[in-house]
Amino acid sequence: DKGEYRHFMLKEIHEQPAAIANTLEGTLGEDHVLTAVLGPEAETRLKDIQNIHIVACGTSYHAGLVARYWIEEQAGLPCQVEVASEYRYRQVAVPANTLLIAISQSGETADTLAALRYAKQQGYLASLAICNVAGSSLVREADWRLLTKAGPEIGVASTKAFTTQLVALLWMTTALAQVNDRAPEMISANVRALKGLPRLVEKVLHLDQHIEELAATFASKHHALFLGRGPHYPIAMEGALKLKEISYIHAEAYAAGELKHGPLALVDENMPVVSVAPSDSLLEKLNSNLQEVRARGGQLINFACERAELDNGEGSIHLSLPWVYESVSPIVYTLPLQLLSYRVALVKGTDVDKPRNLAKSVTVE
Ligand code: F6R
Fold this sequence. Notes:
With 365 residues, this protein is an alpha/beta fold. The chain has helices at residues 8-14, 16-24, 42-48, 58-75, 84-87, 110-119, 137-141, 160-179, 184-204, 208-219, 232-247, 283-295, 329-348; strands at 51-56, 79-83, 98-104, 126-131, 144-147, 223-228, 250-255, 272-277, 299-305, 316-321. Strand 4 (126-131), helix 7 and strand 5 (144-147) form a beta-alpha-beta unit. Fructose -6-phosphate binds at residues 57-60, 104-106, 109, 112, 157-158, 241, 245, 361-362. Homodimer.
């Protein structure tokens, strides 16, 4: 039932504050994460993990890419991320004490499931499923599970499943940091930020009105570029995927630093450039990338922190987000990109909940 909403996708976008709160329920202490959520012996077994491999498809793969930045920086563990359809058909070299993480909303994606089965013969320490469906094949077959509690996702384009996957992955990163005795201030700051996330996400949903205003110009374009740096690069990838999927506008994401290595040649007044610009340590670098776009007449749309000093030249549209703690920022910046693709698709009149050629669950290769 779509209730007051016109589409399941919009309903599911608005369900994110509750979906995140449900996913976190019972997983956090005062200033630490409750590792027992993973099972009785998790605490000791977590300590043995020295490496992480992540496999997934599509949007779930993007969640894995964000997690790599978190895991390497905060837990200090090497982490690799790969699309399941590639991973399952190659000989992987698995270092000692590696944890395999398979991420899937449905838990039935053929390639992800096959990747897990393949991994079981490769000498991993253990496998963990991050999944939204408790009774799914993936959850049944993995050693450990971390359930996202997003509730059923009906829209083909994944929204609340993605942000809750990110929540589960930040929780997991914090758990790994905790058992490895990493800085306690970082751990308690993550816990605080996770607890504050539902309210923050709620606030960011109010940007919808401004996003609606710019959707019309966007809808007349045939291509778009999405730029981000650090963990916001995979968020740019997710924004581009959402736009492609439901509005059928060709979109590509680049790490902002790659711009001048090729894609800048595409930029002119017909190429909107969407940038994800939180107030982090990379802002200054991003700023100079944006100037390059502006100098070539590109239409810039910046999703930026209200505290960020982006020089706003002519022709740029600036949408402000509240300041957020760095760890949770990729989660928060996902929302305006979901809304952008939704609003553009509405203008174009596409079938938002059932985009052409796509199925909700890809159970065949
Ligand atoms: C995009 C989307 C797909 C899925 C992918 C994996 O919006 O929904 O890219 O993310 O098919 O599906 P799950 O997560 O069920 O394994």
